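Form 7-S
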Amino acid sequence: METNPKIDSLQLMLTDLRTRNESIRHKAAFKGCQPEFQSLVSRLIKQLENELSQEKKGLRNN
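Output:
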């Protein structure tokens, strides 16, 4: 499969979001917004997964 910078960046962002970053989670918990933070992370992951899927489909159709 040929390289695609957008696909690479989406995959890297998803990996980063799925990695447990303790310092950021600690700040969210300290501010009392851990559930809201986790909800945003989950929504962003879904959105990025959809975009990644569309990019891969577009690459296959070319």
